[in-house]
């Protein structure tokens, strides 16, 4: 005997995923149902009855089910309850799965999703663009939240994501990685200190680019100058042309009263920032060698940073 709750969810899938044209609007669906966390878990396991723990869900999709539920509601609010018929919650899960588990080729990814390659590409692009529109933008003004010091109130850093060797101009993407030389895209990220959040994310830049060079090209210097801000940076930003934009913790030879307390506060904040960067780098598309172009990689990185900010609202760093 089937579980009535299971039947109700099955009916929900049929309503959401039905491809029968409607008389009033042929290409759009109106007022789709909202889903609870239990519904999200059920969709996450492909509509099957087998149990799925919260830990398993995070391992597959890299995001808590509660955040997916809230995000799904936000998508409906943003589009006033009207979404393209060809795009469903399953496509959103495929997008999360792409960011988290990745794949070696389009053929492999499309086969796992049981779609043609062109359909998979189109739905993935649509999912990423919808998330990019719906998720809150990076807020530079958030650097002052829960932070009592005048400056710096943010920390700047870069990280590299590996890619396959490009067919042309490969030297500009080359960077040193133990135990061999690798190729990659580089991203510049700015984090708020008081309430750790990603408030600036730019890229991709070529892997061989120096951090100080990226700062000149990304526009972060102009942003800091307009706000009268100086970002905390490491020694790679050292130089006369960077002194008015970036600063480092007070050295022991120049330390004055209360500087040790300030250094301890900044050091603690730095650890939180490193943990956030680690979360970004733990997305599988940042760990395996990418082969799908710089434009799609930049979109995936931007969406991942915005998702991380939403997750931090529900699950702050402990």
Structure, explained:
With 318 residues, the protein is α+β, with helices and mostly antiparallel strands. It is built from eleven helices and eight strands. The chain has helices at residues 4-17, 37-44, 54-61, 65-78, 89-101, 106-113, 117-134, 211-218, 220-227, 259-282, 294-314, and strands spanning 28-30, 82-84, 154-163, 174-177, 180-192, 198-206, 231-232, 246-247. Strands 3, 4, 5 and 6 form a four-stranded antiparallel beta sheet that branches. The longest helix is centred in the last third of the chain and has 24 residues, at 259-282. Residues 1-33 have low confidence and may be disordered.
Features:
14% strand; 11 helices; alpha+beta; two-stranded antiparallel ribbon; 318 residues; 4-stranded antiparallel sheet; globular; 45% helix
Report the radius of gyration as a whole number of Å: 22 Å
The overall strand count is: 8
Largest sheet: 4 strands, antiparallel
CA(first)-CA(last) distance: 45 Å
The gross shape turns out to be globular
Low-confidence stretches: 1-33
Helix content: 40-55%
Strand content: 5-15%
Return the string of H and E elements.
Answer: HEHHHEHHHEEEEHHEEHH
* Integer average pLDDT: 77
Please tally the helical runs, counting DSSP H or I stretches of 4 or more residues: 11
List the helices and strands and how they pair.
Layout: H1 4-17, E1 28-30, H2 37-44, H3 54-61, H4 65-78, E2 82-84, H5 89-101, H6 106-113, H7 117-134, E3 154-163, E4 174-177, E5 180-192, E6 198-206, H8 211-218, H9 220-227, E7 231-232, E8 246-247, H10 259-282, H11 294-314
Parallel strand pairs: 7-8
Antiparallel strand pairs: 1-2, 3-5, 4-5, 5-6
Helix pairs in contact: 2-4, 5-7, 6-7, 7-11
